[in-house]
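I have been asked to look over a protein record a colleague put together. The record follows directly below this note.
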Amino acid sequence: MDTYVHSRIDSRVTRPWNKDKFSGAKPPLSPKHVWAVRTRLQLLERLRDLALFNLAIESKLRGCNLVSLRIADVASHGRAVDRASVRQRKTGRPARFEITEQARQAIDDYLSQ
């Protein structure tokens, strides 16, 4: 993948791979796309992925904080809790977030399998 100009006369300039591509921060998922992902995960019966996706969307945690969550952080005694807290890796501050009914149901379904 050459992106520079060759010094030979018969060569041509190659086009960079990211020309006219959107770079930088991506826009957030629209509600239509969120529901499409949720529906697909439910149909495929991927309970763990559905629980993580619901937590990711609703808690707005960074990915590194989301994957560091433990079952004990979001479920005590085998049931999902209403609120959870996690220490942010980037800032070191605790982040409290509410777990909605839909996310609690997905967590309970995952734990009961």
About this structure: The chain has one domain: 31-112. The chain is about 40% helix and 10% strand. The beta strands are 75-76, 79-80, 83-87, 94-98.
